[in-house]
Amino acid sequence: MYKNLAATLVAACFFLPTAQSLAQTSSASPDPFKAGFVYVSPITEAGWTKQHDEGRKAVEKALGNQVKTTFVADVPEGADAERVIRDLAQQGHQIIFTPSFGYMEPTLKVAKEFPNVKFESVTGFKTAPNVAASNARYYEGRYLAGIAAGRMTQTHVAGYVAGFPIPEVLQGINAFTLGMRSVNPKATVKVIWLNAWFDPPKEREAAMALFNQDVDVIAFHTGSTAVMAAAQERGKMAVAYHSDMRKIGPDAQIIAVTHQWGDYYTARVKAARAGTWTSGSVWGGVKDGMIRVGDFGPKVPKKVQDDILAKQKAVGSGKLYPFAGPIVDNEGQVIVPAGQSLSDAQILAMNYLVQGVVGRINR
User: Fold this and answer.
1) Enclosing H/E stretch for 112
2) Nearest to residue 40, comparing CAs of 7, 9, 85?
3) Separation CA 243–CA 260 (nearest Å)
4) What is the dihedral angle through the alpha carbons of 55, 220, 257, 259, rounded to the nearest 10 degrees?
5) Which terminus of the chain has fewer CB atoms gathered within 10 Å of its CB, N or C?
6) pLDDT of 292-346, one tens digit each?
7) How do residues 149-203 score in pLDDT, each as one tens digit?
8) Cβ count near 33 (within 10 Å)
9) Which domains does the chain have, with CATH numbers?
10) Closest CA to 267 of 92, 23, 33
């Protein structure tokens, strides 16, 4: 999650840890290796921060008494984040994970002061000798969820509650719409912008407003479970994001798009502990196990489930690409001609809404 993405964003050289680096560990040290985590919201039952905390727990499970993890939750982006990151470094943490885009600049600033500490800017794009960047291809899961929504909708109108108009969110909206219209060409997607990542009352209000506009299935890019709860209350359908939310919306949830950080976090802590950690940029997706769809609700026919799971395999193998042409924006301009597809650099700099999205980018 992140905000105010610079217009000069360009693609970096992306890579994932090798099997060799995943397996590397150092000899036992007398003191546990200290890993710190900074979270942008409270740890709730499901959501963005929950998924990253599950990644932290995976590190503990994998390394046992070889590691000691610490987290600080509900830290606003900006000056507060800089203070907390610096405090963790001063307390002797040897690697610090900062999973929110607004933490990128504070992380880089603190990293200059602590050259021997490793920093992981999760959803950031800038790197330094002791700062690595990582993110997931959330849009791959969004496209698959759009197919589910297209199969399930009766009104042919979906809703989308969105945080900030940054490329990652635009990627999600566009991929969801393209997936939906690939199986339901007359489908449309109505968007409400919140300019907030975590504001349950506003998230709920936006969902309710969309349900009053013929929306019968809703997706969201915010940090709480409020949209799912609203869908359950109104008898509508919803796509869970970040986490499986069937506990909140047992009847509403049709599918979940989740991101999995345990393997990545564990690999990076192992590398830092072994002295083999290097900076770089990672952008992992379905094929890397960082993004997955599933956790279907009871309303979804098995035939639809099987189709989506098959398409997930096709995305992972590269046979199905969400941003393949022709793609037209919602003002009628051709973005990608037939036979071509978007490059990573173009995806990372996305600044438009595709045909089928009702609304404009709220700058």
Assistant:
1) helix 104-113
2) 85
3) 9
4) -20
5) C
6) 999 999 999 999 999 999 999 999 999 999 999 999 999 999 999 999 999 999 9
7) 999 999 999 999 999 998 999 999 999 999 999 999 999 999 999 998 889 999 9
8) 20
9) 19-136+260-285 (3.40.50.2300), 138-259+291-358 (3.40.50.2300)
10) 23
Two structure tokens written together for 185: 């060409």
The encoded tokens of residue 179 equal 């997936």
Find tokens 């982006």 and name the residue.
77
**Tokens at 173, concatenated:** 């909206």
Name 14's Cβ contacts closer than 8 Å, sequence gap at least 6: 281, 282, 283, 344
Query: Could you tell me if 132 and 279 are in contact, meaning their C-beta atoms sit under 8 angstroms apart?
Result: yes
Q: Which residues contact 292 (CB under 8 A, 6 or more apart)?
A: 141, 257, 258, 260, 286, 312
Instruction: Look at phi and psi of residue 37 and say left if phi exceeds 0, alpha if psi is from -120 to 50, else beta.
Output: beta
Q: Which two tokens stand for residue 39?
A: 């979270």
pLDDT digits (tens, 9 = 90+) for 223-262: 889 999 999 999 999 999 988 999 999 999 999 999 999 9
